[in-house]
Design a protein that fits this description.
The complex is a heterodimer of chains A (303) and B (259). With 303 residues, chain A is mainly α. Chain A is 72% helix and 4% strand. Chain A is built from 14 helices and two strands, in the order αααααααββααααααα. Chain A has a two-stranded antiparallel sheet with strand order 1-2. In chain A, helix 4 runs antiparallel to helix 5 and helix 4 runs antiparallel to helix 11. Chain A is flat, with a radius of gyration of 29 Å. The C terminus of chain A is likely disordered. Chain B has 259 residues and is of the alpha/beta class. Helix content of chain B is 34%, strand content 27%. Chain B has nine helices and twelve strands. A six-stranded mixed β-sheet of chain B has the order 8-9-10-3-11-12, with helices on both faces. The chains are: A mainly alpha (303), B alpha/beta (259).
């Protein structure tokens, strides 16, 4: 059939014997691509030159403060708060996601309400509120209802700025993480649950061994950006006089008036940490992406 | 084949199941003895898959009574009271039944051997080394020992289903349930899965198979159960059903296989 139609096609513009080959087509000249590329490169160069030569940036001051022990201590606090907020956020978020999907209605509504509340209140307001919580609740008591008080503590001693920062950032993150984790859990195919159930797995074993490992693939990428956003969100705790990176920087430039170079120090540290986190995320994604066809492992996986 | 002295491994009496107002099972009674291979036939929507899922409690039944190896499934009867068993007891009961699904449902994040080892380790508490040895023997049995370290997406449908059979066998179930195991496969891959199932049947495993493969029904099964609209309308060895189909519908199923 094919031979017949080919000889018939030779009745067209070009004789069949010397059909051309598109593989040998001339390269096409794209003037606009070149124009845009050159414009962007020039613009970027101008920015680099501006940053490098602007005396007001005082790069010597930046260099002097970059590894200042006080700044590094502030940096440590920023990292520590990021860690705590994410641990609280992930743990509480997982619990909230499971509560939300629970068949026990009040539990489900509790999770819904929690998420609603802590996503609605701005983090800055939440932090200031927690910082002043002792005005609302002067003492915290542990007591048998209508019975004797077993333990009592002044709220001011209990909710230090550090505790307020951890709770504030942690609850805020938990509200966001619960939705991310819930999306991850829902992304796992129902057949996986049926197979696990049919094998006699309890619901906790199923969650731990089958559902969560597969949900992680969906949970990791947005969690990565949540960690990065938390890192920057910690700068809010400077308003409740927690000595994080930004607060430390502020106290230094309040004394020396080198505002711009010190803010550059802070920005550089946030940039460095974000870069490290992004690289780390790639490796974690690769780990949980095993068992799935993707650009990364496609060629290696062929039998 | 059937002897009255043998105790049934699966006993279902008047099992009823509804989804909302749609009554899918309208009183199904079936008894299967040890080492028996029973094929369930019927058009889609006849309730045959639902019945399988009720046997291993993937679905809760609305009425009737099921016993697996002499133990009431999901419920307890004492002093004239029927009581629902707590979840942890039902979880343990499911281990007596292995299930093979139409869509394989292999764990996507685990390799072939990982899939076979998972439940023996996390459910039965075997050591990883023992579970791996047993698992490799099972993969050998289904002809996939050389594919042990591949992930499900790297296997063909037929290979995935054979791994799924090995995974179910790894729990050493008393009964194997097959829910249309070859329906999702390309025609050229059906044979390899049926061959593995034949071997499982030969090894004396009790099997209940929902399938449209008349070849398997006629060659391997001891008995064929024909379901239609939520009830069993015929229950006899294949040859007998082929010779005397209960009605035209049954005939249309079993006749084409009889050349």
């Amino acid at each position: 059939m094919a031979q017949h139609s080919l000889s018939a096609a030779s009745g067209g513009a070009i004789p069949a014997a010397n059909f051309p080959d598109v593989g040998k087509a001339d390269r096409v000249w794209h003037p606009w691509r070149w124009a845009i590329s050159i414009f962007i490169i020039l613009l970027m160069l101008r920015v680099v030159v501006l940053v490098a030569t602007n005396k007001n940036l005082q790069w010597d001051v930046v260099a002097a403060h970059m590894f200042d022990p006080v700044v590094l201590r502030g940096l440590g606090m920023t990292l520590w708060l990021t860690c705590l907020a994410m641990v609280v956020g992930f743990t509480l978020g997982t619990a909230l996601a499971l509560f939300r999907m629970s068949s026990i209605a009040p539990l489900s509504y509790f999770a819904l309400g929690f998420t609603w509340l802590f996503r609605s209140v701005p983090t800055l307001v939440l932090l200031i509120f927690l910082y002043n919580i002792s005005i609302l609740i002067p003492t915290v008591e542990l007591a048998i209802p209508f019975g004797p008080v077993l333990w009592s503590e002044r709220t001011n001693d209990l909710v230090t700025p550090f505790v307020a920062a951890t709770i504030g950032l942690g609850f805020h993150k938990a509200a966001y993480m619960s939705e991310i984790i819930r999306a991850g859990l829902l992304s796992v195919d129902d057949g996986q649950k049926q197979a696990a159930t049919a094998l006699g797995m309890s619901s906790t074993t199923m969650l731990r061994r089958v559902i969560l490992p597969q949900a992680m693939r969906v949970i990791i990428p947005p969690t990565g950006s949540e960690i990065i956003s938390t890192l920057k969100l910690t700068s809010l705790v400077s308003v409740i006089s927690m000595a994080d990176l930004l607060y430390t920087i502020e106290t230094i430039y309040a004394r020396t008036f080198q505002t711009i170079p010190l803010l550059i120090v802070a920005c550089l540290w946030y940039l460095i940490l974000t870069s490290i986190l992004q690289t780390g995320q790639r490796y974690v994604e690769r780990h949980f992406g095993r068992g799935y066809r993707s650009a990364a492992n496609h060629t290696a996986s062929q039998e | 084949m059937t002897q009255t002295s043998r105790k049934p491994v699966v006993l279902a009496r008047d099992v009823r199941k509804s989804f909302g107002t749609n009554e899918v099972l309208k009183g199904v009674s079936l008894s299967v003895e040890a080492s028996e291979v029973v094929v369930i036939l019927g058009s889609s929507g006849s309730g045959k898959s639902t019945f399988l899922r009720c046997l291993n409690q993937l679905e809760d039944i609305n009425g009737g009574w099921i016993e697996i190896d002499g133990e009431p499934a999901g419920y307890d009867y004492s002093n004239g009271h029927v009581r629902r068993l707590p979840a942890h007891r039902r979880v343990v009961q499911r281990r007596a039944l292995g299930m093979v699904f139409q869509q394989f449902n292999l764990f996507q994040h685990l390799t072939a051997i990982g899939n076979v080892m998972e439940a023996p380790v996390s459910v039965r508490g075997l050591s990883k080394a023992v579970a791996r040895d047993n698992g490799m023997a099972l993969l050998e049995q289904v002809g996939l020992a050389d594919k042990a370290n591949l992930y499900p997406y790297q296997l063909s449908g037929g290979q995935q289903q054979r791994v799924a059979i090995a995974r179910a066998l790894a729990m050493e179930p008393k009964v194997m349930l097959f829910d249309e195991p070859t329906s999702a496969l390309d025609p050229e891959l059906v044979g390899e899965v049926l061959a593995v199932m034949k071997n499982v049947a030969k090894s004396g495993t009790t099997m209940i198979v929902v399938t449209h493969e008349m070849g398997f029904a006629s060659e391997v099964s001891d008995r064929v159960v024909f379901m239609d609209d939520g009830i069993i309308i015929q229950n006899a060895p294949f040859a007998e059903i082929a010779a005397n189909p209960a009605n035209a519908k049954v005939a249309s199923f079993v006749r084409p296989a009889k050349h």
